[in-house]
Structures are given as structure tokens and as C-alpha cells.
Model the fold of this input.
Amino acid sequence: MPEHDPLTDERPSRSGADDRREAWRMGLSVSIATALYGISFGALSVAAGFTTAQSLVMSLLLFTGGSQYAIVGVVATGGFSPASAVSAVASSSLLAMRHSLYGLQLAPILDLPGLRRLVAAQFTIDETAAVALAQPTRAAKRLGFWVTAVGVYLGWAAMTLVGALIGEQIPDPRVWGLDAAAAAAFLGLLWPRLRGREPIAIAIAAAVVALALTPTTPAGIPVLVAAAVGLAIASFGEARRGNPRRRPRDRHADRGMTR
Done:
């Protein structure tokens, strides 16, 4: 049996046909699940003051759910003002920064030239990265990426439109629980990553900071501060790993030399 190649990150595969079927299955299931909570974005966007057309354009051009919810949340809290605009852009940009990390992982796998690289960059999101990187071979990774990309893009836009049209008819989307759909989706993405003490510590610290600041600071600020706290904890942990403590026997040796 062939062994796992760490350079290509390809694992032993049953067959090319099986890999393709699995890539299609995973990509389509993720696309459907992601598209469904686009309904909540459309409804909440209209409730925040955006038009149906503006909500749809945001989904087509921005196409990153977390950033879109951040913009809508800031505007819903602070209204359309220069301060809320700056906070909305800052919050959405910060949330979208993670996509650059996905790009670093996916670029050598997709290996696309020119304009096709730009198209792939538009489709590099949580879902496409997760499906692509979960596949066992490079060909399956590529297929998983594009199946998920097209499925999520079309489904997200369609459900945004549906949600916006529904939102026009509902005075308060919270009555139907649509405001909780985004939070539930984020928790679903976050939960598998909470493995180990450091990720859990970062999540708890960021949540505590955000909850403490929400009642007293302008919209969007809690997200930025919580993210800064998370980055600080991660940086501290990385520094500790890069400079491990000396082993106890070394400290005892030092004491013996200085006595």
C-alpha cells in the first residue's frame, strides 16, 4: 500500500472514482447547508436598512458571510453614519483576513494562472477551504474546491434574495429566530477547531471581552478588541513554543555553578 506523502499531502486513495464521488458529496452537502442560512442574512440586512438589491450585491461581491453579518450588525446598531461605516469596514476586514491564510494553503494545490487565480481568490472561503483540504488527493482537492465554490456562491446569492424578500414582509426577523442563524452557523464552524487548551482559552477570553464591552462601547468595537485579545494570546503561546523553558536539570546545574 502506498504511504502518505508529506510533501504533496496526499493520502492513499481507494480509487479516483471514489474520491470524485466523495468530493461531490461533501461539496454539495456543505453548499446546501451554507446556502440555507443565507436566508437569515437577507432578512437581517433588509431589517437593518439595506435594500433587497444592496443585500444581493453584497452577497455577490463581498461573498464572505462573517464579514457581511459584521457590516449588517454594526449598521443595525449604529445606523448609517461615518463612525458606523468605519467600524463596519474594520470589523468585516478583520474577519476576512483569515481567507488570506486559506489562500496560502490552496494556492499550490489549485496552481492557477492569471485571471483564474483571481476567480479562485473570490471563492476562497471557510467552506471551500475545508472541503478542499479534507480530500485525499490533489485532483479531489481541486474538484472539492470548485464544487463547493459554485454551489455556495449560487446558493448563498439565491437564499440572500429569498431572505431579503421575506424580510420585507416581516417587521422583526427576530420573531422567527433568523437573528440566531448566523451565530449558530459560526459556532458550527468554530466547534471542530476547539481542540487543545490554547484554542479553548482564546475562544473563552475573546467571548468574555466581547460580552463585557458590548453594553458600553460602539458597535463593532467589541469584535475588534476581542480579536486583538485572541491574537495576543496566540502570539504569547507561539513565543513560548519558540523559546522553551530550560529543563529542571539545567536549572539545578546552574545553581550548582553559582554557589
